[in-house]
Amino acid sequence: MQATGLIVLLWVVFAATHMVPSSLRWRPRLVGALGERAFMGLYSVVSLAVFVPLVSIYLDNRHDGPLLWSLSIGPVLRWILYVPMGAAFVLVVGGLVEPNPGSLVGRDTTVRGIHRITRHPLLMGFGLFGLVHLPWNGFASDVAFFAGFPLFVLIGCAHQDRRKLSTQGEAYRAWHAATPFLPFTGGETLRGLRELRPMSLVLGVLVTIGTRLLHGPLFWGG
Question: The whole model's pTM is what?
Answer without folding.
Answer: 0.90
